[in-house]
Each structure stands twice: as C-alpha cells, then as structure tokens.
Design brief:
about 280 residues; Rossmann fold; 10 helices; ten-stranded mixed sheet; alpha/beta; two-stranded antiparallel sheet
Length: about 280
C-alpha cells in the first residue's frame, strides 16, 4: 500500500504541511498516511523555568499528552476530509530522527514529507530536515512554509554531466502514470560555459542525458552561475516551476545544502517543494 510518512510538531508550518500532504496523496495515489509525533524527553524536559526551577508534575505531562492526541486526531480528520486515504497515528518516545528511521523500517513508507519554516530554530521538524534527509533510506520531500499545493506541470531537475547515471532514479517516479503530464526542466550548471562551445564529449553527454530521460517530456537548460544553489534559486524565480527533484550523489543538490549554512540553504532553496531521491 503506497504510504506517506508525515512527522508533525504542531507548528503552523506543520499544519500547512498536513493540507499539502492531503492534496499530494490524492493526486499521487497514496493510500495511507502516517502522522508521527514524538514525545521524547531529554534530561531537561521535567524542569520548567519560573522564579526558580521547579519539577513538571506527572499530571501536567499527562494533560499535555492528551491534548497532543486530540490534536493528532484533528489533523487526521483534516486529511480524511480532503483525500480518500487511510490515516494512522504513530507515537514514539525516541528523538525525532530515530523515530523516523524506526517507522521507516517498521512500516515501509514510500516517502517522508517534512515542512520547512525557513530556518525557525523553534521548529523540531525544521531543525531535523537535513539529518532526516541524509539518513533516510527512502525519498524525502521538503515543503516550504506557506506553499499551497499546485499540480506539478514543470519539475526542475539539477543535473551534473559527471553523474548522469543518477538520472536512473527518475524511473521510479515514472512508475506512476500521473507523472506523465509533468515536464522535466533539466538544469546543468556550467560555469565554464562548455555549452557555448561544445566539444565531442559534451555532445555525447547530452545524447546520454536525453537517452536516460527518453520516457519523460523534458527540456535541457544551461546556466553559468558559480554556485549551484544560486543557480537553482535564479531559475525557479524566472521560470514556472512547481517542484525541484534533487538527485543523489556527491555532486547533488543535497550535498550542496549540507556544505552551507543549513538554515540559510533551506530558507533560500526551498521556495518550492523539493523531493530528494534516494
């Protein structure tokens, strides 16, 4: 059963992600959505700041948990009202990253969907986007705060001619017929501008790229920016793009994110949702 895993932290962004998840599930034929909430407590969780430190009572913690369960029930109903899917609630006492990995192994979802609130340090989900994206054995989707679901007419695929084999990962998406209507806008960032004076190797690489993508509607674009992230941002700002598809590998979009300020990179790059393939 095609399954979507959505960790939640009850932030405004998390609520928005629920609406997006419902629409995405309906469009891309997911049959089950798992909402994951962790109640992990670190060594400071039982202490509150007042005039002086004081222990949090057991009754307070139980009340907090009951409120959280009620909130999860409300989120579940929102998804059911918007999409014909089965919604399940998963509770964990583990830290978020470990909880996500455990659920992936136990429930075998097809994708993890995370809401990003542009670097807000108070958001549990946002603080864990990069660790989850790196550790997850399945694809991860990052949805920026305030983004409302749109049909994916055009998807941007940053591609490196030195790692064309990673384009094979796109065939996993092609397994779903709903992707047939999506046009791939393949972007090669070439600061040395080989595309202006292409040699035989460059033309051969172009042919290989088109062969990899022969089952997709696609078009190849070039930019000469020095920085991959800036190139993606500039491209999405000037083109009609509803999704970025990030390929795996050392030269990938994800690799670039992890080697910059994480909050800044997510804030800048996730103007539209990003799917990180595995």
């Amino acid at each position: 059963m095609k399954t979507l895993l959505v960790p939640v932290d009850f932030s405004t962004t998390s609520e928005e992600t629920i609406h997006f998840a419902a629409a995405w599930s309906q469009r891309y034929e997911y049959k089950r959505v798992i909402l994951l909430k962790t109640f992990y407590q670190n060594v400071f969780s039982d202490i509150v700041m007042a005039a002086e430190y004081g222990a949090v009572s057991h009754d307070f913690m139980e009340s907090h948990r009951e409120e959280a369960m009620d909130h999860l029930g409300a989120l579940s109903r929102k998804i059911k009202d918007a999409a014909d899917v089965r919604v399940e609630i998963a509770i964990s006492e583990l830290p978020l990253l470990r909880a996500v990995i455990e659920i992936i192994h136990e429930e075998t979802p097809d994708m993890v969907m995370l809401g990003s609130d542009r670097g807000n340090a108070d958001s549990l989900i946002s603080r864990n986007i990069i660790p989850i994206a790196k550790a997850s054995p399945i694809r991860v989707m990052v949805v920026p705060a305030g983004f409302t679901y749109q049909p994916v007419k055009n998807a941007l695929v940053p591609a490196d001619f030195n790692a064309l084999h990673t384009l094979d990962k796109l065939n996993e998406l092609k397994a779903s017929p709903v992707w047939a209507a999506t046009r791939l806008m393949v972007l090669n960032v070439d600061p040395e501008e080989h595309y202006i004076r292409p040699d035989d190797q460059f033309r051969e690489d172009e042919l290989h790229l088109h062969e990899y993508l022969k089952n997709f509607k696609h078009e190849l674009y070039y930019r000469n920016d020095k920085d991959i992230l800036s190139s993606i941002i500039n491209f999405t700002a000037t083109n009609d793009v509803q999704l970025i598809i990030a390929l795996p590998g050392k030269r990938s979009f994800l690799y670039s994110l992890t080697h910059k300020s994480i909050s800044d990179a997510i804030c800048r790059a996730a103007k539209v949702p990003v799917i990180i393939l595995k």
